[in-house]
Amino acid sequence: MTGIARGGFEGLDACVHCGFCLQACPTFLATGDESDSPRGRIELMRGLERGDIAATDPALISHLDRCLGCRGCEPVCPSGVQYGHGLEAARSRIAGSRPVPGVARLALWALTTPGISSVVYWFARVLRATGLPRLLAGWGRFGFAMGMLAATRAAQGGGGRRKAAKARQVAPAAIRRPSPPLATLLFRGCVMQGLFSHVHDATIRTLGVNGYQVRDVSGQVCCGALHAHAGLLDEARALARVNVDAFGDGDEPIVVNSAGCGALMKEYGRLLDDLRGERFGARVRDVTELLAGSAMKGPVAGEPLDLHVAYDPPCHLLHAQGIAVQPLKLFAAIPLLELVPVPGAAECCGSAGLFTLLEPEMSRAVLQTKIDRLREAAPQVVATGNPGCLMQIGAGLAAAGSAARARHPVELLDDAYRAAGRYE
Amino acid sequence: MTILEKVTALLGEGAVLEAGTDRVPRVAPGSPDAVALLLGTAHQEGWRVRIEGAGTWLQSDAPADLALTTRRLDRIPAIEPSDLTATAEAGIGLDQLRQQLADRGAWLAIDPPGLAGRTLGSVVSTATAGPLRHGFGPIKDHLLGVTFVTGDGRMVQSGGRVMKNVAGYDLTRLQAGGFGAFGVIVLVHLRLRTLPRADVTYVLEGAREDLTQVGEDIAAAGLTPAALELVSPALARRERWVLAVRLAGSPALVAADEAGLGAASGGGRFSPLRAEEAHAFWMRLAEGFSVRPVTFRIGGVPAASDELLDLLQHQLGDEWISASPAAGAIRWTGDTNIDRLQRLRRTLAGLEVPLTLERAPWPLRGAVGHFGAYREGVGPLVAGLRRTFDPGGALVVATEGS
Amino acid sequence: MDGLPTHRLIPDLVVLPGTREELVAVVRLLAALGVSFVPRGAGTGLSGGALAAEGSVLLVLTRLNRIVRIDRDSRLAVVEPGVVNAKLGAAARPAGLQYAPDPSSQSACTIGGNVAENAGGPHCLKYGVTANHILALEVLLADGSLVEIGSPSGESWGPDLVGVFVGSEGNFGIATRITVRLTPLPRAVRTLLADFTGLRTAGEAVSAIIATGIVPAALEMMDQSCINAVEDSVYAAGYPRDAAAVLLVEIDGRNSDAVVAETDVVTDLLRQSGARSVRSAATEAERERLWQGRKKAFGAMGRLSRDLVVQDAVVPRSVLPQVLETIAAIATHYGLVVSNVFHAGDGNLHPNISFDATDPVLKNKVEAASAEIMQACIAAGGTITGEHGVGIDKMRYMPLIFDAESLGAMQAVRRVFDPDERVNPGKVVPVHACREWTHARGDRVGSRGAAPRGEAA
Q1: Nearest CB partner across the interface for B168, out of C132, C412, C429
Q2: Under an 8 A CB cutoff, do B386 and C346 touch?
Q3: Could you say which DSSP state residue C404 is in?
Q4: CATH code for the structural domain at C188-299
Q5: What is the pLDDT confidence band of residue A231, given thresholds at 50, 70 and 90?
Q6: Which subunits count as partners of chain C given 3+ CB pairs below 8 Å?
């Protein structure tokens, strides 16, 4: 059978159930239930493919719904099982035989539909500006949602005490700056555009310092990742096609600062099963990839920031895109900034797209472990490059009463550049 | 027919030996099958049988209709120096076995208390480890498998002769230290080591507390002695307590540890023993435990070792004591009575320290038992195992005491 | 389902108790109902030991994962059964201690499962297997009663019930509290990778090392097929792909001079025995990589085919070269791919057969080849399992190494702990084994209330 004919299930064939994935799975660690582990879910998915288990089986649905899709199991798998592909195939089958849960539908409609979403985000921004969400943050459903919203707010005047070294060595960047600047196209996305436009601004500025000219592309839409995770592959494909058209057939890199979007966009070829998608995917770059540079020299150095930072690699960056070192190059470009090691940093935070809304209980259980460890390590900033993770971790920190903020790595670099007077 | 006549008919005249002072007929089967035949008959006839080896360790005084001695089961069917394994019958004297192994460059790293001619079966069934337990573990760690005959004459094998084996339940460990309550061991598969190329002993005399501290320093310094034994003055026949350190292994390892020993003892107060002196020292130590009427061992965690030595001295008097503090094992020998021993066992049980009575005259051993002070639920399990392996109660063993 | 691909069973009910009290309550309820149950840890077993059939309840112990305490002075730890092996090791490290048994699945497997199977691992060559490291246990019997056996010093209260319990494959009850011995971390470690152009010369090198009296911490062998599977995986360790076999040798100790000296001796021996090259891990990271490749080899072999049977047998070390050749011949005869990755220093073989279980013809061939390999190992004086256990997979081989009396004795011992054979039924001892033992005695532990007899007389 060809890969296409089996729709991704073939990625599971290499599994010999050794069980080495169990301890890498946040949901298994939370429940201890084999069915909430990669190995158990693979067994369920194999049963689904064989037809032994119906796509409407409630137990099957529940255990697959409870998968974060973080793919933390993939890098530890000795035999290279493509869990993510299998999961997508299974979810697509499930979606084909049941209505997508109302909450998911509603959320997708509200967050990704052009016209609708702009109103939703406007309201959210107004509410955010009142400062109320931060005050109302907590562990309950409402409180957590408020915490998530509060976490999207740009830091006031940047973070960390700036070193007052005023001797500004302006533009050593010019040495690195190619002329003319390299053109890149910014993918704006839905949530990023609606709630994290400050991260887009930081992305444009920091790339500028490093010799990239960032251009906007009109006609782009949501990447479709949330739809794909929910099993709505047809809707994801429709969105993907719009984006492929919008970004055209040039060869400029497409820069993304949301790990979840980047992970799917790099796979448009597989999703659309065509050459255009393939070519599109090959152009997609996470912002940290561009800043680190192909030779991993790292971005131009900024002004020192006296900050303790815990880096929390998003699953869709680390596991799905295999990007581990590049974000660290950003921190390395900020003198004085100290990275605080946190055990289990590479484990999922429990956000996972709509997961935090659909499976709040599991999501909080997974998050709790991370928050406990963060509180122990006590950084001032938790840096992570994905909107879902920023909101999830930010809400968790707020609920736990921690003063630490969740921020995107480019925001920190942006602060360091501003302090260095690069934007003056 | 008398019992003796029946046995003679069964096993032939050669199997019947001269009786001991208590006139109990003594029978020495010449093969494992003969042991099975004898015990099968005893089970049917309702005879009570006591088990003996060379008669040098446990007193041969249990009331019985028949004494079964393993001393004619003295073959060594296999020594495999390249595999570091050997198979020996239970009645072989340890001295003979050791000699045969040494001739092939192999070593059984156990040095049990008692006389040199103690049988292998005796050592295994009583699990009496000596000072080498510090470096090489308890008796059970040297066993790959055993064959034993149950009280009703069935021959059972367990384990095998390879280094690792998890086929079936581990009945070998049930037999090691079972005191014969679950059958008579007839054949033992042993795990060997190569004969150490370097083997030296150092001794240091001093006050007990000081020596304990030196022992801890040696452990902290990262030395890996084969034995690290604290011996009471009476047993060592010296003025004061003795800390004896035996280093055995590759020349590189021993040389490194020798260098570290001086540093750990604060400037080389340890004196080395010449090879024959060392041999004599360890042998005298082992033999000391078969001289006095009562010998027992207790096991406590290393941190409690000092406290336990105090307790023994206080409750039973300053007798002959040898301890491997780091291994958590203390052995005492001397003279005492039922009451004091029972009281001591109760006190120790409160400290989570088991007392195993190794040897004692029958009246004491019958009353106190080799074992006792079981935790809740253990007694019924032991009784169940006893019924399983000796359903007719043919084997006379003082398990829990009366 | 566990690491054994040839068997798959579905239990009637799965229970995941969150505390010891819940576990006890469930077992008492099952006792009252007369329902059988199967304890399960992480499900990394390789003999089907934790599979529960219809009519049985699966008791999953992964949530009982507390490390109760670590006692630095007495060098011991008390843990619940669901604690993952590697996590115990990590918790002991700050105290300068280690839990020595290190099964290859240690990143996932649980101490409770280790106790049930008497698990081994590469470093057991020097440090001993699980049984050598268990001091005391709190055991939950089939009838719901809790019994404490063993003591913190390792000396037992009477017969060595801990020794009997360890490796009983869940047939005697559930270990609810486990006291393990911790050992000092070695202060000096040297790890060598030697590559050979022939399996036989590699086998001979093993014998040569053992004969010196130096006890390496580990002495592992991997053949070419296994090397390639590992090198293709994320755990690629830099093993030479063109080698017929590599030996991974580790020398450790608490004195670095001695370790260096012993390493020199071993290096010379490896060269003399025909090693093409001997490489020493220069950094801790490199050492870790060499070991990760070895430990994840089983999983990596998933690349070779859809299914994989990991066999487990032990032979006397001196016959390793011959037995390896016999295994290769059996593989050729059946047209199967057999990869070898094993604890050479112990003579503990793991021939892995790669196949596709959806092909029934192939599946039968694998069964037949497995049986032939077992018979060859037994004929060489070996046994059918060194660390994976009998489970359901090896039951059929039990009569090849034990006679009916011995099997009957095992069955009878089991019935002392579990008279109705309700814990993990249908495992280890084949059912037809000498029923006479248990019937003749009629001493079900229902009569456990009877006073223990002091004297047999």
Answers
A1: C429
A2: no
A3: H
A4: 3.30.70.2190
A5: confident
A6: A, B
